[in-house]
Amino acid sequence: MSIEIRHELCTACGVCSRICPGTLIKRRDGKAVIPRPERCWGCAACVKECPSEAIALFLGDDIGGLGGRMTVRRDGTLLHWTVTMPDSSSQTITVNTKDSNKY
Amino acid sequence: MMNLDLRRIDTDFLITGGGTAGCLAAIAFRERSDARVLIAEKADIRRSGCLAAGVNALNAFIAPGKKPRDYVDYARYDAEGIVRGDLLLTMAEGLNSAVEKLEKLGLTILKDKEGRYAARGWRNVKINGENIKPLLAGAVSARENITVLNRANVFEYIVKDNRILGAYAIDVDKPVLYVISAKAALCAAGGASGLYKPNHPGNSRHKMWYPPFNTGAGLSMGIRAGAEMTTLEMRFIALRCKDTIAPVGTLAQGVGAKQINSLGEVYEDRYGLTTSRRLHGTVMEILSGRGPCRLKTTGITKEQETDLLKAYLNMAPSQSLRWLESGLPPGVRDVEIEGTEPCVTGGHTAAGYWVDTSRETTVRGLFAAGDAAGGCPQKYVTGAAVEGEIAADSAVKYMNEKTSALNTDDAEAVKRRLEGCLSGKNRYFSVDDLEEEMQAAMDRYAGGIGEAYRFSAASLKIADDKIHEIETRSDRLSANDMQELVYILELKERLTLCKSLIAHLSARKETRWRGFAERTDFPDKSDKWECYVNSRLENGKINVITRPLIREDEIYEH
Questions:
Q1: Checking CA distances to A35, which of A88, B172, B229, B406 falls within 20 to 30 Å?
Q2: B18 to chain A nearest CA, in Å?
Q3: Model confidence at B43, in pLDDT bands (50, 70, 90)?
Q4: Are B520 and B461 in contact (CB under 8 A)?
Q5: ipTM for the complex?
Q6: Which residue of chain A is at minimal alpha-carbon distance from B326?
Q7: Pick from B46, B108, B310: which is nearest to A93 by CB?
Q8: What residues of A are in contact with residue B172 (Cβ under 8 Å)?
Q9: What average pLDDT does this structure show over B92-110?
Q10: C-beta separation of B54 from B132 below 8 A
Q11: Percent of chain B with pLDDT strictly greater than 90
Q12: Global pTM value
């Protein structure tokens, strides 16, 4: 259990349901849904591909998740990763896909 | 009851699995031949398989001053001798050109001031691999005459007189059964996770190292078709960050973090520094009451910490999320580590199809590359790329010989069998129930996490009995839709592979890879087992044989 689809932001574009490596995301009634969330790997491919920031990555309670939700906004080669906590505080880290990892 | 629509597809070269090996094999095939090529992929090649999340480095590369034979020696040492020299050398010779090809496809690779690749050690190059799958998929779609059939789950090879003629697949969404005829085929469907109870069996059960969607389908299709398998008993168990199961190499090699026990002692030197011994040491420290074990990251600089957060976002974002939401980044708290459940994967160990030097399996016209191909550990992304290319080259040559055509097939019988599964009748137990039973049996009796990876002949016998019993019950499973049918097929694939894995674990009566496979009844390494353990399913029985080691100066033919 690793992703949360926020239906108020979902535009039913279908990208996530096409690219999920586990074919776990389905389209029902014009929205993306994940009927079997426990089968999710947490790869975050959908989080990165979603153009509406409607999908958030989280850590399950059973592995000590603290309620943070991570979303990604893509801007050219830049990926802005934002973690929002339950108290609405947030922090963003930007990664340029043209920059190599240092390690 | 649901009726399946039968659709026939003709191609020349069928590739099962659109990962690194599959995509680069398709491209290499088209560079050498005008024949048709079809990639059948269960998900979508843009984000499927191991690299869905990205990859942090290219871990197989040969820096200036080193030679391909150095790589062979390194891989042989790490695998305690059980490798195929011929496969390792032919792979190692192509590693650097594979790096160049990936760069041409658009992969960001770090370079030094002179424009050379910046190596991490002598075998790794630093990259930004977040988008490696979209790049590979883009390269495939830019070529003519490569057809990609996404959401097609291949589940059975069509083999007659030990020659490949095609495969059956089902659509993941629509009630369609594909009968694919092909003159040659490549199995690039990866290895297997999910055979054993995972680190977190609850809601985060799929928070695992190897993708939970790599079910060992390619291997089990080969096993059922009578193909010879090798070294399955060399399981891969990754040492990972606890809970998130994120890689540790970036911490160990990137910022030089050492493995320490709860007393703060660096313990890795006591057990040896091979991949399996690093795991073994961690297990032993915990069993000795000196756990938990950690990577000592406290004290790194703020800049290092920021770079680590970014690096993990590019391959395992859960770890960055853990650091950010807890407010305990690696500079503040050491990172606890643990071993994962055992997997079968030829990209890291030597488990997989027994292939000749040209990467042909023992089924004529069926080739194997990447995580599905055995004998050639430490191949990683670039090694898988090289193997895909070698296999494609060999497939072109094979197709110039006389190949058979698919004239008659059992499509109607296969269709009826699957439609029987789609009745939705069984309400007594589910795929999940049987999967959990299988994983529990493998964990308890075939050396899973719960037993610190230890097993014996007696426990393996129990595992085998239980897997057979679960397999019998799996025949009564039924599905309500195509996705559920895929889950049933995947469970059956895993059960098939479990039986062969148990046969291999039973056959090797020694403990060669401390950590990876601990035999309590044969706790020492023995020279007698300086050989390959291979197996073949014949008339419903798994026959195990041994074969002598093959060195890098040989060309091996079946």
A1: A88
A2: 11
A3: very high
A4: no
A5: 0.97
A6: A66
A7: B310
A8: 23
A9: 96
A10: yes
A11: 91
A12: 0.97
Q: What is the CATH number of domain A3-96?
A: 3.30.70.20
Q: A33-74, pLDDT tens digit by residue? A: 999 999 999 999 999 999 999 999 999 999 999 999 999 999
One-letter amino acid at B58 equals L
Question: Which residues of chain A does B53 touch, with a Cβ-Cβ cutoff of 8 Å?
Answer: 41-45
Nearest to B108 among A20, A81, A97 (CB): A97
Mean pLDDT of the region B16-30: 98
Bridge-based pairing state of the strands B229-230 and B531-538: antiparallel
Q: Chain-wide mean pLDDT for chain B?
A: 95
Closest CB to B206: pick one of A41, A64, A93. A41
Segment B88-97 mean pLDDT: 98
pLDDT category at B508 given cuts 50, 70, 90 is: very high
- The Cα B129–Cα B473 span in angstroms is 42
* Burial track B138-164 (b if 16+ CB lie within 10 A, e otherwise): ebbeeeeebebbbbbbbbbbbbeeeeb
- Nearest by CB to A45, from B47, B108, B308: name it: B47
Q: How is chain A split into domains, by residue range? A: 3-96
For chain B, domains (ranges, CATH) are 239-339 (3.90.700.10), 411-532 (1.20.58.100)
Given the DSSP bridges, would you call strands B124-129 and B108-109 parallel, antiparallel or unpaired? antiparallel
Q: CA-nearest residue of chain A to B204?
A: A1
